[in-house]
Amino acid sequence: MPPPVPPIRCAALTKRYADVVAVAGLDLTVNVRECFGLLGPNGAGKTTTIEILEGYRDRTAGEVEVLGVDPQHAGRAWRERLGVVLQSSSLYPNLTVHESLRTFGGYYSHSRDVGEVIEIVGLTEKANARVRTLSGGQKRRLDLGLAWDVIGRFRAAGGTVLLTTHYMEEAERLCDRVAIMDHGKVIALGTPRSLIASLGAEHVVEFALADGATRAPSPSELAALPGVRAVRPGVDRTALTVAEVHRAVPALLGLLERRGAELSLLATHHATLEDVFVSLTGRQLRDA
C-alpha cells in the first residue's frame, strides 16, 4: 500500500512584496495525524506562510498542496475541511459561550454538538456567560473551539494540526515535530527532543551581576569553564548551556569570586525548546 499523501506540502514556496522576500523557497511537509509546530520571531515569514496555506494569500512562486488541493484554486468544499484559529479574537462580546459556538458552527454543514464542545473545552459553568465577562484564558479556550487536550482526539480521528504559538511549553508538549523559521527560511526542523539535544547539553545556567558588566567575565572565560558547551550573553543576564551542572556552577562561582563580582541572579533549569529558539534567533519567542 502506498504511503498516505501528506496533508500539507510546500516546495520552494516563495512570497515577495516588492523588494522584500517574506518566504524564501520554503520546503515543508506535514504528515497525516501529526501536530506540527511552526515557530519563529516576528517577520520570520510564519504568518505569510499560513495565509498561503489557508488560501488567503497568493504565492509568488513554488508549489503548495493542502489536503491534496492547491489553496490558490480551492473551493468551498475544501475550505469546510479546514479549521483556522486567528491570532486576534473574532468573538462577539455580547454573545454567550453557547451562542458563540452555535453561531460559528452554523457556518459548516456538519458541525460538532455545541454542548459537547463546551464540555470538552471546560466551559460548562460558563455556557451562558457573555464573552465580555470571560477571563483571558477562558476566551482563548472559546476562541480555539477545541482546547489543547482535544488535539490528541482530533489527530486520532485522522486530523492534522499546524500549530503556531508564543508558548514554547505548549509546542514542546504537543508537537510531534517543530520547524523554526527566520528570515523566510526554516533554520531548524525536528522533534522537540532532537532539537533540545542539538544544544549538546541537558542544563542551562543563567546568571546576572549586581554590579553591572564592569567586572563580568568575558564569553571566552565562561566558555572555558568545565562542562560549559555554549555561552549566550543577554541584555540582563547570561545563559550557559552546560553538560555537567555540578561542575559548571562551582567553577562559575569561583570565577566570579576571583573577580569580585556579586551575583543578583543564579538559576538552573533543564534545557527546553525555548533555549533552542533563543540559541538560534537570539530572541525569546514571546519577545520576538
Write the layout of secondary structure elements.
Layout: E1 8-17, E2 20-30, E3 35-39, H1 46-53, E4 61-66, H2 76-79, H3 97-105, H4 114-120, H5 136-144, H6 148-156, E5 161-163, H7 168-174, E6 177-182, E7 185-190, H8 192-197, E8 203-209, H9 219-223, E9 228-233, E10 238-242, H10 245-259, E11 263-270, H11 273-281
Parallel strand pairs: 3-5, 3-6
Antiparallel strand pairs: 1-2, 1-4, 6-7, 8-10, 8-11, 9-10
Helix pairs in contact: 3-4
Structure description:
The chain has 288 residues and is α+β, with helices and mostly antiparallel strands. The chain folds into three domains: 129 residues, Rossmann fold (3-Layer(aba) Sandwich); 59 residues; 71 residues, 2-Layer Sandwich (Alpha-Beta Plaits), CATH 3.30.70.980. It contains eleven helices and eleven strands. It has a four-stranded mixed sheet with strand order 5-3-6-7. The longest helix is centred in the last third of the chain and has 15 residues. The model has no long low-confidence stretch (mean pLDDT 86).
